[in-house]
């Protein structure tokens, strides 16, 4: 009798856990996305540590991060996207979608009846009450933001699982990897044919705070794939991001090494060649003296999107005129 009761309890618990579609992870810590889990169990953990199990594809999606929006469009989900942010810039179709903001009244979200709201960690930290209200109303809210290229692949697969576009997501990953191999091959040929050495680069993330990208970041992946060498290898990430404080003193300690000075430009870093050139102390930097200062769109070097390939190609042209 006791054995039968225990067995019944275990079966009930297993069934309950299997059908649970949205719950908190055991430790509450952020974990990398698990492509093996996605493939075999249709489950993974989001950036907030919540365990996500997909019962069926989501079809009415509000995206509150431009990278999510861009990737969803790449996967062919134009019809499934019912809302985006006001800052969308790519693709053009995204600008035609209804606009939502984290500052909107929750009723605006509820009135559109989404089955999924995609966010990133900074939104959850900044607007926890909005997230709780949406979840309380039965809307699934998932936080995703990869920090490395390997995590980016898993993130694309996660988006595919969420939307029933698993095949397209896998192809997206495969195509990207193949293009990366091609770019590396092109750069290797440049070194062999011209007998030049890889150029050393300082890659600026935020000028006003003298911040750079940290090892493992997508921006440095783009730089290294394009044949550049990062001089700020000792930069340490802050607040769990892929950007770290570096400081003017450290930058200038590499002044004689820096062949090229590249700065991302966009919302995070509204900078120009003149601002960099006229920064006190920067006159001793080799790249500044040789007019080797370049600005690149942050959208193609910092976002976890397929257009990171455009960033690689742009940096390759900057470094080796190819």
Q: Can you characterise this structure?
A:
This protein has 322 residues and is of the alpha/beta class. The chain folds into 2 domains: 2-164, 3-Layer(aba) Sandwich (Rossmann fold), CATH 3.40.50.1980; 182-320, 3-Layer(aba) Sandwich (Rossmann fold). The protein is built from 13 helices and 13 strands. It has helices at 2-19, 35-41, 66-74, 106-112, 121-126, 128-136, 149-163, 166-194, 218-225, 248-253, 273-277, 286-289, 308-320, and strands at 22-24, 43-45, 50-53, 61-63, 81-83, 116-119, 140-143, 200-206, 211-213, 229-230, 243-245, 260-265, 293-297. Strands 8, 9, 10, 11, 12 and 13 form a 6-stranded mixed β-sheet that branches. The chain has a 4-stranded parallel β-sheet with strand order 5-4-6-7, sandwiched between helices. Strand 8 and strand 9 (211-213) form a beta hairpin. It is globular. Mean pLDDT is 87; it is low at 1-40.
- The proportion of residues forming helix, as a percent range, comes to 40-55%
Average pLDDT works out at 87
Quote the distance from N terminus to C terminus: 78 Å
Outline the low-pLDDT stretches. Answer: 1-40
DSSP E strands, number: 13
């Amino acid at each position: 009798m006791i054995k039968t009761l225990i067995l019944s309890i275990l079966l009930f618990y297993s069934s309950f856990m299997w059908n649970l579609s949205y719950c908190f992870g055991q430790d509450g810590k952020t974990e990398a996305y698990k492509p093996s889990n996605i493939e075999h169990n249709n489950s993974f953990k989001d950036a907030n540590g919540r365990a996500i199990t997909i019962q069926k594809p989501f079809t009415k999606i509000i995206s509150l991060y431009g990278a999510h929006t861009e990737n969803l469009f790449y996967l062919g989900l134009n019809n499934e996207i019912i809302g985006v942010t006001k800052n969308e810039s790519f693709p053009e179709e995204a600008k035609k979608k209804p606009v939502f903001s984290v500052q909107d009244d929750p009723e605006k979200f509820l009135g559109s009846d989404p089955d999924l709201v995609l966010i990133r960690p900074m939104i959850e930290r900044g607007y926890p009450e909005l997230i709780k209200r949406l979840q309380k109303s039965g809307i699934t809210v998932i936080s995703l933001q990869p920090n490395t290229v390997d995590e980016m692949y898993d993130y694309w697969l996660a988006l595919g699982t969420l939307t029933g576009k698993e095949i397209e997501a896998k192809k997206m990953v495969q195509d990207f990897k193949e293009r990366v191999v091609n770019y590396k091959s092109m750069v290797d040929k440049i070194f062999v044919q011209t007998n030049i050495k890889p150029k050393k680069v300082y890659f600026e993330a935020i000028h006003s705070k003298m911040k750079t990208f940290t090892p493992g970041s997508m921006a440095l992946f783009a730089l290294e794939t394009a044949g550049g060498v990062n001089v700020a290898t000792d930069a340490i990430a802050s607040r769990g991001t892929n950007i770290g404080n570096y400081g003017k003193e450290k930058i200038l300690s590499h002044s004689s090494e820096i062949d090229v000075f590249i700065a991302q430009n966009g919302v995070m870093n509204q900078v120009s060649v003149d601002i960099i050139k006229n920064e006190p102390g920067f006159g001793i930097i080799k790249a500044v003296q040789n007019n080797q200062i370049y600005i690149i769109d942050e959208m193609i070097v910092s976002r976890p999107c397929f257009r990171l390939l455009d960033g690689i190609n742009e940096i390759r042209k900057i470094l080796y005129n190819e």
